[in-house]
User: What shape does this take?
Amino acid sequence: MKLPSHLFLDSLGIPYDTKSFPPSTEKGAANVANALGFPERQAVKTLIFQVDTGERVLVLLGGDQNAVSGNLKKAIGSRNIQMAAPEVVKETTGYVIGSIPPFSWQRQGFRSFLEASLANEPMLGVGAGQWGEEIFITPQNLIKASRAIVVNLTDREKPVTPL
Assistant: This one.
């Protein structure tokens, strides 16, 4: 079964693997990682934030990571941001929370941010757009497909923009 996210990667010639997990699996990156037997850090969370300007942005974090608020605000360039409500996420991405692919739905100019430490992982798992389906992709190919800006979102001791 080819989902829109698969067709998008195919159109760019980006290699990936797919794996399925039971749709009865409880939502959450940790549960997906556990069901598929890979580290929680490599199960990417796709989070949509709203900015006071009306902009919406995608933030990609490892399943065991949380963004430092100050770092996130610096990366986005606004002090007034909030997690988008489920209906705003659906309106923005076309997907419901739980298996949002980090690519294929963004308009030109849409900003996506990837936590810098994820670039060091050998492989990352991302939602395919349908619960029970996961895409495995290298960090470099994820950055290419999502046009992500790589920034430090999780370590308050390091600069937001990697040197």
